Amino acid sequence: MSETVEEIRRRVNSAQKNYQANIQKINNILMAERGFISRTPKDEDVVMLCSGGLDSIVMVDKVISEWNSRVHLLFFKRGARAEKHEEEAFDYFELFYKRKYSEKMGAVKKFDYQIPPKSFKNSFPKEWAQTIGHPLRNSTMQNLAVNYAAALNGKYDLNIKTILSGSVAEDGTEPELGLLSLRTQTLNTCVQMGDWEWQITSPMTDPELVTKPIYKTDLIIYAMNNFIPLDRTRTCFSSDEKADGTCFACKKRLKAFEDAGMKDSLEYRRDD
Ligand SMILES: [Zn+2]
Prior knowledge:
The protein is α/β, with parallel strands linked by helices. Helices cover 44% and strands 10% of the residues. The protein has nine helices and five strands, in the order H-H-E-H-E-H-E-H-H-E-H-E-H-H. Strands 3-2-1-4-5 form a five-stranded parallel sheet, sandwiched between helices.
């Protein structure tokens, strides 16, 4: 029997009650095994998941300019409704950053891989769309990013052990975005790979990497100061050319612009 939207929200909410304590437990395991929880990949190669959205696009600039890392971008053609527009954004910024940072941009991979498989998607309860989304969507991408890093390591004789994902402070304790999910993925990867050097983390929310959590608003201000054209990013979930301005992703984006005291120069459909 499927749960109502309300029941799903209540269940997910109550699953977060030991959130900080659980982070601490995983931190303790990592600390005991390797002497650190996570570490800044300064001057190192990293694989970065990039969706073409505001958060991951600005993350590319921050990681290259602040850590001097060389980033290898991974984009999923995963069958999302807005995929065509996400890919346009990704392509635009691939060029943008190659011009801006040349040798700091490593390999770029667009991966055709349905997440979740279409034949499953049609059978998921419809209530999931407005609550928890697709099961294990992000961790599937993160697992594949580990595979991609391993392939790059083999092909170019590299030693990539860091996967970066664009979670921001607003993501809080969301099951697949919050810090606990990143710590869980890190632990999972280390155990499954038999290698305690791996880390799956976010440069915006990991307290080991930033002194204070970075919000979408901070990224917008950073982008303005660094001439990153945010009107070329794609945030909206809808399949239409123009962003609708009404979906969950658009609302978060617009709120962040408002908090930054700036106007989103993106043209929204509701402006028509
Ligand atoms: Zn939207």
